[in-house]
Amino acid sequence: MNSPGQTLKLSGLARRFGMRWALRGVSLEVEPGEVVGIMGHNGSGKSTLLRVVSTALRPSAGEGWVFGKHLVREAVEVRSHIGFLAHSPGLYDDLTATENLIFAARMLGVPEAQIPAALERVGLAREANERVRGFSAGMQRRLALARMTLGSPGLLLLDEPYNNFDPQGIELVNEVIQDARRGGGAALVVLHDKRQGERVLDRIVELGRGAVIGTNAVDGMMAVATAGPA
Questions:
Q1: In what order do the strands lie in the sheet with 61-66?
Q2: Across 151-210, where does the E strand assignment appear?
Q3: H/E element holding 32?
Q4: pTM beyond 0.90, yes or no
Q5: Of 168, 173, 225, 224, the residue nearest 199 (C-alpha)
Q6: 74-125 pLDDT, tens per residue?
């Protein structure tokens, strides 16, 4: 089990879809205040890793803990510590920005009083009562980012968060990550280009065919890892 102060620990985590292993023996530790980038080619298991850590998928083998809570046995408790920005915004088009966040707040057990500040932070205060179906891709991404921050989760999971963002939006993502770090939180960030998150990343873990094949500090040399068995 992970130490009491550890944000995330994965031990031999694996996930299979049919006969295909999307994750193979992934072991990873993340400490409070640490921001870890996850990189790799398409199909390397990056998004699957985030979905397993978020408890959206059950691991086929191995174990994991978030703030000492087991990913499978204590999934409800794990979810209370996690903010997840998926590749797709996953919003309700027929609801307004505020209504989307009200729904999320009630699901999370978070006070709805947080919603105006969350919208202000991502630059959507003036669009609070507009239906999401009229939002651009960037605006939808901003709203999903606001939803992720509700309740100030201790572990952020961001799947390609810089997509559909202009430079101001990229800076906003970095500010959200930095704010979480300053509060003792941590983040896993899936990305294709480390330059976008270079200001906030501490290290990068590279996946290949579902296994960890290397890790390095952002300004350091890559250390090659040995892939676990399938």
A1: 20-30, 8-17, 61-66, 69-70
A2: 155-159, 186-190, 203-208
A3: none
A4: yes
A5: 173
A6: 999 999 999 999 999 999 999 999 999 999 999 999 999 999 999 999 999 9
